[in-house]
Amino acid sequence: MRYGVLGPLAVWDAEGLPVRVPEVKVRALLANLLIHGGGPVPADRLIDDLWAGRPPGGSVNTLQTKISQLRRVLGREQVVREPAGYRLLLADGVLDALRFQELAERARAHEEPAVKADLFADALALWRGPAYADVSESLFARAEIARLDALRLSVVEERAEVRLTLGEHSALAAELGELVARHPLRERLRMAHMRALYRSGRQGDALRSFHELRRRLDQELGVSPGPGVAALHEAILRQEPHLAPPTVESLSCRTNLPTPLTSLIGRREAVGRVRAWLSPHADTRLVTLTGLGGVGKTRLATAAARGMAERFPDGVWLVELAGLGAGSTPEDIAERVITRLGLCDTAASEPNLDDLVGWLCRAVAEKRLLILLDNCEHLVDAVAVLAGAVLSAVPAGRLLVTGQEALGIPGEVVHRVPPLALPRDSDPGAVARSSAVELFVERAAAAVPGFVLDAENAAAVAAVCRRLDGIPLALELVASRLRTLSPAELADSLALDGRFAPPEVRARGLPDRQQTLRSMLDWSWRLLSADERTVLRRLAVHADGCTLALAEAVCADRDLPAKRVRDLLSRLVDRSLVVRESGRFRLLESVAAYCAERLAEAGETAAVRARFVRCHIEPAERWNERLRGPDQRRCLELLDAESVNLRRALDLAVAGEVAGSALRLVNALAWYWFLRGRLTEARRSLRAALAAGGEAAEAARLTARAWLTGVELRMATADAAQIPAGEARLPAPAGAVPSAEAQVPAPTGADPTADEDATAGEDPTAGLGDPVLRARLQWFVGTGLTGQGRHDEGRRLVAASLAGARAARDHWGEAAALVELAAHDPARGESHAELAAALFHEAGDRWGRLRATRSLALTAEYRGDRARAERLHREGLLAAEELGLWTEVVEALTWLGRTALTGGHARRATELYERARSVSAERAYLRGEIRAEIGLGLAARLGGDQQAAKRHLNRALAKSRLSSGVSPLTEDAPPELKPVPLA
Predict the structure, then answer these.
(1) What would the 3-class secondary structure string for 101-112 be?
(2) Which among 343, 361, 346, 353 has a CA at the least distance from the CA of 399?
(3) Which residues contact 480 (CB under 8 A, 6 or more apart)?
(4) Confidence at 553, pLDDT banded by 50, 70, 90
(5) What is the CA angle 309-312-316, rounded to 5?
(6) pLDDT digits over 569-587, tens only?
(7) What dihedral angle (degrees, nearest 10) is formed by the CA atoms of 491, 493, 498, 504?
(8) Which is it for strands 584-586 and 579-581: parallel, antiparallel or unpaired?
(9) How does strand 2-4 pair with strand 10-12?
(10) In a 10 Å sphere around its CB, with 0-12 CB exposed, 13-18 middle and 19+ buried, how is residue 836 labelled?
(11) pTM more than 0.70
């Protein structure tokens, strides 16, 4: 039995099904025993607690009746009577309150902030409502309720402080407000909220919060705020630097490897061998781990890679390929790698976007990194092409690959991962030394607390491990069955099962051990209930796991209510068939492949795929609407997390010739792709949706064509220009250092008029009936035209957008158009930008405020107000960092560097340009690297270091020329950027 007291009293059986405890007094009796944590409670104490000091006649007999009723529900052996009183037998991990405290302690002990935050979140997720809600008015429960409530609040405060270190201040500023209102005198909570408000640009609100605390303390307790919150108040007044959000560098994560949920057993020697092969000082640069499904290739690879993070300064990255279809190309895999490495938001800013493999190779050519390509068995040829290209272009790069066969390219070291070692005989000592037995016992102890290997069960455990050939996945699946079977019964069950017959009668065409895994999955499948099978096979449609909400939406139907999916999922997790990681439910590769077969056998593939597509269209459309408001950052994170599944939904809609669904999906995702800079993905997806067969509304087609036009214009712009158009349009501020940035030669080979015929003299939004959507798309296409140098056409569309937005009372569209028009009219630019900033602020759109703030900063520079320009650029930098828009971060840093140069502050300019270069290099943002090198050269020249200036400026020229395949020794370069021999 498992017990829940963090909310209404709840009991679940070993299968996870709820157990009803009838009658109020019986529930109160159970709550009382749980409060004592398995300790004895005297009968007279129970009588006094249950009847609040007014016991009925014959109270002892009445209590015994209630005890009997409780035993009938829980089992007679669960409630025992001892000389000291009655007590409830509680095994480890069966009470959610103790689990909550355990998770909180684990979080406090962990050093990694992201892991701490996840553990705190898992602890808080156990709460279903007020603790002991059924008996909250009972005197015997009040002290425990108060204790648990205090612990919960402390965990909320600790999690908030950790999230502040992770840069989540905007979300916290909104989330903590209601909690502070409920607990106005909690100073630690108040301090976390004040910090979040301050870092979100709401200094006034932070100060008002302190004054409210001081007033309440004085009126209610007659005391003053403590020294900690008072010191924070003073720091906010002085705007001390330590209150600033975490810097870009500290927010950068150099690995995305998951935190292991369980220990790795039996692979110590293999881990050491893989690490030695992949050492930066070794000659080996490609290691492939092969082996049958379920043997533990991914666990071995991630364990080996995790210990190598310090050896690779540019990161250790896991790229999961199981979600890609068998027909995926090297370009598809390169796009997945670009996304996982965090290069996706800048890929659209560079040339040669049709050659993503080449772009990736150039982007990481100078990096020292390790990339783990996981689950490549269905993509061997495509992965081999990509691996060969990367290894040829990246001398300091290393690749670790997992799959069921080798890639077969030169330089590859292949390590076959064997099953775990089996016991050689039945001697308990020998059995205990087997790694297969060690894994089985550890997983069994997790399923059945208190389980240990002993002389009585050693032979049976050894038999189970031998029967399963030491395959880790099979051992993990079967270990959970010890909840209902003894080791001997389990061994007999496996021996008697026809699916585990000798090899000669197994399915043909599979190696023996692969057949063993298949048999294990068959056996586990037959032990499931019908509803558990339904949920499990339907989960296989997800390419990258799913949240609980999406699992309920995809798995539920008329015969299986969504409210039941949660409990069924929990039981599948308990059986190790589903893995829960960071709030997502995933199937291991072998289980997913098996379940896909079962889905087809059930004849549900088409229906479940259609539901999967529909269930991803609806949240995508919902998140799209919220991308222009205060939930922008949260929706970006949600879309990031679901990007692989969203792509699968689009692929399924296109393959199924359901054009209506495909177009709805791409139209919902277009703005997200733009914000993340994924123009290549946007172009490919929009083209695929427009080419899909099937019926679709004409408005949806018009919308997609307009998005595609704007995207293609921007991609032509990215090829044709290195410096933002807005920078070239504004006159240089008075007293500015002559800027070489605008003189960087543009990469050649791109035709700025490539898409001119497609848009010349026409409005691609004509025919759209939605005035808000049409105005926004006119702005999107118009800004693409102006960025390409077609200013007259672009301004006409943007002006039409402004008029349309105002007519439709769309404040967001009006603000977007005003920001663009501000760049074309310096005389009225400030008023346009100020109105746009106010409208974006009203909408809560941080991206829009960033753009408006930059326009105001440029106008301030134009008027010679350097102090205001710097303050505005800093605000823009903060917003860009919060949203994770790294190209915008670089732009803000370079503008700040230019402002410092204008003021004659060479040292400060150098610091800013160094940060810009670091972020640009990390994100493979070539234009940012060029601008940063130029800025460093100008700063060095201002500081009198001519040699350093020449080095930086030559690097800028070389990067600009070589990026397009043109020699850096061209004769028409500006004099200050021509290569200069160094003495």
Answers:
(1) HHHHHHHHHCCC
(2) 361
(3) 443, 447, 574, 575, 576
(4) very high
(5) 55
(6) 988 887 778 888 777 898 8
(7) 0
(8) antiparallel
(9) antiparallel
(10) buried
(11) no
